[in-house]
Amino acid sequence: MSRLEAIGEHVQQHRRGMFVDLVFAMAWVTIVTLLFDFLQAPQWAYYLAMLCGVLAYYGFFWSLEAAKTGERT
Q: Could you read off the pLDDT of 53-63 as tens digits, one per residue?
């Protein structure tokens, strides 16, 4: 199997997840950028908010998975 075929197979298997990841990332970056442009906040705070997007991503999908399985945490 060539590298291109392997990539194509991976994308085909994970299409929905990759799309959701892309939409979440685009929404987070857009919201943070618009908010910080409006507030004229310092650059370090902007980068910190972008870094918090990683935590927000995992927290959101963890809570979504917990809600689907009915876990109480």
A: 999 999 888 88
Which two structure tokens, joined as six digits, stand for 37?
Answer: 């442009």
Q: Which two tokens stand for residue 58?
A: 């995992």
Please name the helix (run of DSSP H) or strand (run of DSSP E) that holds residue 70, with its range, or none: none
User: 71 pLDDT band (50/70/90 cuts)?
Assistant: low
Rounded distance between C-alpha atoms, residue 35 and residue 29, angstroms: 10
Longest Cα–Cα distance of the chain, Å, equals 51
* Secondary structure in 3-state letters for 11-65: HHHCHHHHHHHHHHHHHHHHHHHHHHHHHCCCHHHHHHHHHHHHHHHHHHHHHHH
Terminal-to-terminal C-alpha distance of the chain: 44
Please give the model's pTM, rounded to 2 decimal places: 0.72
